[in-house]
Amino acid sequence: MHPLTEDLSKLNDQELFKKISDLTNYLTQSYRLNNYNVVGQIHMLLDDYTAEANRRHQKTLEELNKKNESLGDLIQTR
What we know:
The protein is an all-alpha fold. It has helices at 13-32, 36-67, 69-77.
């Protein structure tokens, strides 16, 4: 985890994806300017934000699967 990463649990999904979009744009600009020190820092921040997004998606999938146990059977049989 990057030391400058804020508490990501306080962000709603829209804010989280906006930050990911902003960081991706900053990363592109840093590559264009050949500023590889900044590229490394942005990658670490971006990893934290995408890991949080993935964690939230996984949690949502688990909740949906618990609500509808038959969904898991349908997916496995096809």
